[in-house]
């Protein structure tokens, strides 16, 4: 498990492109037949990528967590960004179509990942945070959460946001999670940008065409930097950072948050004209 230590906004102006990418971008979470993990010390979130191809892949406990099982002190949301697959939790198989979401509560003992078709493997993205109570494990079918239609084609940001794990849907201790899909021809997400000092947020971009990239903005609103992001890459946004991007093509992303509260609308907007 890779460790990413917390950073302060004062560090951002002095960082090179390589340093920005080393702190905030995860380039290679998804690899065939592997389970890879990154632990961000911002709100102690753990990001896992699992791509089962030749056989099922068990979720390890990861020695860095110093727990017998991954879910002893944690909960997680899992979204499938690949082909059809299944997640088995303590003997019960949950089939995840592409973009379906499975919430797994604290106390689950054995979790494993499998693909329906080795030629089109599933790609499971797991976002985990510490949990102090156990909520039931729940599957949400694609588009089955709370749907919000956002943006306008005239500002190139028409998109459908689906909330899966949130206050009005699947219950959790900390994790808030969903998927946003840009409509064809729209390229901007989350603009006007915002911050939420009470939560860390992580974006996993997917469905980005191979020859396209997303230019993702980070940093304090008056001191932004950018990352050039490819398909299936992840950006970690500390609570003080904006998180917004524009693609050279349309794309989707899984957004997930954890921290002090779960109020989706508790955010501070930053008008476009104030960004620097
Ligand atoms: O705090 C909320 C998050 O930044 C995202 O949910 C925003 C998003 O998916 C979008 O605007 O499309
Ligand atoms: Zn946000």
UniProtKB/TrEMBL annotation:
A single BP term in Gene Ontology: D-galacturonate catabolic process
Catalytic activity, EC: 5.3.1.17
Protein family (similarity comment): Belongs to the KduI family.
Function, as annotated: Catalyzes the isomerization of 5-dehydro-4-deoxy-D-glucuronate to 3-deoxy-D-glycero-2,5-hexodiulosonate.
Cofactor binding, per record: Binds 1 zinc ion per subunit.
Pathway given in the UniProt record: Glycan metabolism; pectin degradation; 2-dehydro-3-deoxy-D-gluconate from pectin: step 4/5
GO MF: 4-deoxy-L-threo-5-hexosulose-uronate ketol-isomerase activity; zinc ion binding
Cofactor(s) needed: Zn(2+)
Record field: transmembrane: none
Positions bound to Zn(2+): 194, 196, 201, 243
SUPFAM superfamilies for this protein: RmlC-like cupins
Superkingdom of source: Bacteria
The entry's keywords: Isomerase, Metal-binding, Zinc
Gene3D superfamilies named among the record's database cross-references: Jelly Rolls, pectin degrading enzyme 5-keto 4- deoxyuronate isomerase, domain 1
Organism this protein belongs to: Saccharothrix syringae (Nocardiopsis syringae)
InterPro entries listed in its UniProt record: KduI, KduI/IolB_isomerase, KduI_N, RmlC-like_jellyroll, RmlC_Cupin_sf
Protein name: 4-deoxy-L-threo-5-hexosulose-uronate ketol-isomerase
Reaction catalyzed: 5-dehydro-4-deoxy-D-glucuronate = 3-deoxy-D-glycero-2,5-hexodiulosonate
